[in-house]
Specification:
Shape: elongated
Largest sheet: 6 strands, antiparallel
Number of strands: 24
Oligomer: single chain
Distance between the termini: 160 Å
Radius of gyration: 45 Å
């Protein structure tokens, strides 16, 4: 009698299937994970651009930084998208409605291009090409390709800040972090990529001649259309106006030379500024002029009022005044003698840059001292009897700098030259034979000379 057999699987078949099951399970799990990743990545944004823009507007309106952070996608991972930055973005959008409205219009225009929605038109395409519009805005509509469908987020383009400190030394600090130091020939640093926002830029520099370090700061906005912002600063601290009545006067403070050269002169006494100026009385300022005939300095003046103007004009030294007046007197005496002698050789040395015939000029000028009327008597000789200054010598003798000629000149005005006249008949006239003259003198080769008589 034959025994019935079991039609089930043989042990060998079972073992083969069991061996294949782990591989199949792993493959199924991998496929599920890939699908889950694709679905999650496609859900990282909204499928409709209009919905993204609506959520963006709502986040701004209710000042929801968390919702805003979910919407934004930075183009560079190095950009710091902190809660503080997001809060400042919201505040700026509310404070500057024109900026906010322009940003929204750019996004709506980008929506029309990315979704090929002809019914959406902001008018921007009338003024720029599609490529220009897609590249516009630091905040823009960003399209992400997905496995199942495309999604949209608000992209954030990186911003860059070029900061320049024009002083020859110092440091640049941005939001409390030192960004770089400057030196002569190296004044700028570039920062970025940065998240759009307002940054506190601090400049610090030292003025060795004043023994003072000055710090100035400014809030710089990186909100705008351009991706790069340039900001430049020359740090001075407080300033005070200085002035001199002649040019090429160097300012000294507390006996230290400064780089300030006041170049005002008689024709232009507009003055200049000195910095850094302190109003606490710790600074004493004066001017030094290096004249061809010697150095002179003004009396030190204490700075205690920053709204005042400080005169740093070095005075003409008393010895120089005496030399000038002695020279003018000698010139007038030589000029008077040349009338009778007809010899102007000595006078030409004293007046080397005269124009025209010098003897003729002397005779014409001194002939005016005598009026013969109907008499046939003529002027025979002239002698300087007395020379004086009609006004205050300290006011009538002044130094000025001619910027075109590059020379100092001493101007002597209101010179009264009284003469004694000898007539052809032997008579002497010494009553009121006075001329009023003005001189411009120059000092060259160690001696004085007349530059001009006027």
């Amino acid at each position: 009698m034959s025994q019935a057999t079991n039609p089930g699987m043989s042990p060998q078949t079972k073992g083969g299937i069991l061996k294949k099951k782990p591989g199949m399970i792993i493959a199924i799990i991998a496929v599920c994970l890939i699908l889950a990743f694709m679905l999650s990545s496609s859900s990282a944004g909204d499928k409709q651009a209009s919905e993204v823009i609506r959520k963006f507007e709502n986040a701004i309106a209710i000042e929801d930084t968390k919702a805003l952070k979910k919407l934004l996608s930075v183009d560079d991972e190095a950009m710091e998208m902190t809660d503080d930055r997001l809060h400042k973005l919201i505040q700026y959008a509310k404070k500057e409605p024109d900026y906010y409205e322009e940003t929204l219009q750019i996004m709506i225009g980008q929506q029309a291009l990315l979704e090929e929605a002809d019914h959406v038109n902001t008018g921007l395409l009338d003024t720029m090409s599609p490529d220009q519009l897609l590249k516009s805005g630091e905040l823009y509509l960003k399209k992400k390709k997905g496995f199942l469908s495309d999604t949209f987020t608000i992209g954030v383009r990186p911003q860059y800040l070029n900061v320049t400190l024009e002083n020859d030394n110092g440091t640049i600090t941005v939001d409390g972090k030192e960004a770089g130091s400057v030196s002569k020939g190296n004044h700028s640093v570039k920062l970025g990529p940065l998240f759009p926002g307002e940054y506190q830029v601090e400049f610090k520099t030292k003025f060795d001649y004043a023994g003072k370090e000055i710090t100035e700061s400014e809030t710089v906005s990186l909100f705008g259309v351009e991706s790069e912002t340039d900001y430049s600063r020359f740090v001075t601290g407080d300033q005070v106006r200085i002035n001199s009545r002649l040019g090429e006067v160097q300012a000294y403070v507390n006996d230290q030379p400064t780089p300030f050269i006041d170049r005002s002169h008689i024709e232009d006494a507009s003055g200049d500024y000195f910095y850094p100026a302190l109003s606490d009385g710790s600074q004493k300022i004066y001017g030094v002029a290096k004249f061809p005939w010697g150095e002179s300095k003004s009396e030190p003046v204490m700075i205690d009022d920053l709204s005042a103007e400080y005169d740093i004009t070095p005075p003409l030294q008393e010895q120089t005044r005496k030399e000038v007046l002695d020279f003018v007197k000698l010139f007038l005496e030589t000029r008077a003698k040349a009338y009778a002698s007809k010899d102007v050789s000595a006078l030409e040395k004293m007046y080397p840059h005269h124009e025209g015939d010098l003897l003729e000029e002397v005779q014409d000028s001194l002939d005016n001292l005598y009026f013969s009327g109907l008499s046939e008597t003529t002027l025979k000789a002239v002698e300087l009897r007395e020379m004086s200054i009609s006004g205050d010598p300290t006011e009538e003798i002044e130094v000025y700098y001619d910027t075109e000629k590059g020379h100092y000149f001493v101007q002597v005005t209101d010179v009264l030259a009284d003469h004694t006249l000898t007539l052809s008949d032997g008579d002497v006239d010494d009553f009121d034979n006075t001329q009023l003259l003005n001189f411009s003198l120059i000092y060259t080769d160690g001696k004085w000379a007349v530059s001009k008589i006027f």
